[in-house]
Amino acid sequence: MFQFIRSPKVYDVCIIGSGAGGGTAAKVLTEGGLNVVMLEAGPLLHPAKDFKEHMWPYQLAHRGADIGGRGLHAYNGEFMAPNGFWEIEGEPYTLAQGTQFRWFRSRIEGGRTNHWGRIALRFAPVDFKARSTDGMGDDWPIAYEEIAPYYDKVESFIGVFGSKENIASAPNGVFLPPPKPRCTETLIKKSCDRLDIACIPSRMAILTQAHNNRPSCHYCAQCYRGCISASNFSSSQVMIPPAQATGRFTLVANAMAREIVVGKDGKPVAVSYIDKTTRSECQIRARAFVVAASACESARLLLNSRSSAHPGGLANSSGAVGRYLTDSVGSVGVGYFPQLENMPPHNHDGVGGMQMYIPWWKYDRKNEFLRGYHVEFGGGRTMPAVGEFDGVCRQHEGYGLALKKQCRTSYGAYIGLSGRGEMIPNVNSYCEIDPQVVDEWGIPVLRFHWQWGANEIAMAKDMQETFRSIVETAGGTYSGNANPGGPLPYGISEGGTIIHEVGTARMGADPRTSVLNAYCQAHDVKNLFVADGAPFVTNSDKNPTLTIMALSWRASDSLLDQAKKGEL
Hints:
This protein has 568 residues and is α/β, with parallel strands linked by helices. The chain has helices at 20-31, 47-50, 130-134, 144-158, 183-195, 235-245, 295-304, 389-394, 400-410, 454-473, 545-564; strands at residues 3-16, 36-39, 84-85, 94-95, 105-106, 200-201, 249-252, 255-262, 268-275, 280-291, 329-336, 356-358, 373-379, 414-421, 430-438, 444-449, 477-480, 528-530. It is 22% helix and 19% strand. The longest helix has 20 residues, at 454-473. The radius of gyration is 23 Å and the shape is globular. The chain starts with a strand and ends with a helix. Residues 68-76 have low confidence and may be disordered.
């Protein structure tokens, strides 16, 4: 049995989750004068101690290897910024029969912003009007022009490098100068030019010059390990500090939210959570609530918040909570380039990620599928990455000088390409509460249902054709998964593995079919907002984090305005 503890204080706002949306809300609301408490399911972050920046494999207990599949990718688990998990002991999730889905979660201050790739892309105007464009899915209740000022605010504050290209599918932003391309990026750029494919400087939340009291990137190419200097973006290092500086912010770590408690009038009055360090059940009371635990975790919290006033879960009179779940369509391929063999060692680091990318360029033609995708690529002598040295070693057999020669020849000669495309919501992809399974805290867990549609399969096929064309035009040899008869045709990723899940508490104008209004405010209860990926109506080819922050800033401005008027 848990001991029960109720906080005597009533905060203006309680935020659940400290990632992109939660951190942004904390900054805006505290600077706006409100007293804010934030619940984070993991511990506090201490960059100098927790990040493995600049360490060598031999300095780590397992030489940098993945440990039990707990890292973001199998090749960098021990190096990864801390507490990002595919599987969490004691906190399971379940899968419906036939479902292939993986759920990445973070349990630490800053959430998944400690682990993301820092790719910061704006949705295009057409992305907000999908149904009006091709008749599928639904339009957003807002237009690009309404969120554009908030993209400006976020980019201006966090720092995003890029270039103004005036491409319809990739809107310009407020950019810092982009870094110069590396040799692998130049190689792909020349191939794309020959094929008339747009290839431009990428847009990433990494500082190429000092900005807002943060130093510029020193090009160690290790962003995935965390950045002690905070030259790349994370909520823990960029959004939460200004909230703390106001003196109106309280962060409660190791607080696993169980449910949002409502009063007699059906409005939320408190959050019940488990203090994981003492195993006590506690309550935090507030006048308004911002749920920002990540799309699926937020849906879980709302669905578990049942009461006589909300028998189907909080803010779920529409039945849409947990529905419309999408992830990005992903497919990958690798090119081997003989001209990069035996490359003399040189400084090839740069930022921790792509310095160029391929935006969606087929928007002006009829394709065999709806919507679009962009292509991310990278290679070279980095650790780890596509073609990283231990990966090269695994591709060759033998020992001694002959093995070393083979490895040195091919090290740095690979370039990987990854497609990121839009999934159209379908009725077979959603999450719900498992009626039988609970986690170690006694909280019912999520059960996932997942199915790719024919449109996504056709998109992955096109990705593979594009990858092959680019690689072979550049003089390389292409290898990729293009097996149309396999369980995941054309190399399409498992659901969840791109880690762009959104849409589980969608916004809309009609309370009968949506959970939130245009300001991410619940239709059913005015003092509840959702500020992560859950409000998304569509999941365009753009990585969602920048849009999460822009929506959160806009929702927080609305919350502030209503709070000042006494309307909550």
